[in-house]
Structure prediction request, 159 residues.
Amino acid sequence: MSATPIRFRVNGNPVQATVSEDTLLLDVLRNDLQLKGTRFGCGAGACGSCTVLLDGRAVNSCETPLWSVQGHEVTTIEGLGTPACAHPVQQAFLDLQAAQCGYCINGIMLSVAALKAEAEPPSEAALQAALARHLCRCGAHLRIVRAARRALDLAAPAA
Prediction:
């Protein structure tokens, strides 16, 4: 396969990668750009650990060929907020201690951030659909849902 230069933006910065046609966005983010917050989980788009924002939309970077991001903006967890000024989603997850092992949480926060940007406030069904794309095996699911609701300004549904 021939190497093709791909130009795009990552966290607001211009990037060029010269890669083969079958290179995945996840590989460039982690290996070439050293953005380790984007995790490799299942490699099949089923766990959500590799979620990034592509022009504000949550996508699995393990299924996204690099050629498809030509001219687009990619946001990773490293670009969502800063240590001095956390994104509202990050702050809600910190305040409610919503992470346990932390492996899946970056992808979850990016999906919630995409949902927050789409609609204010989104429906409970939209939140559940966004979270359904993610697997969390450490038992923090209830805290994750509470933090996501707080970030989205959703009250917990009546029991």
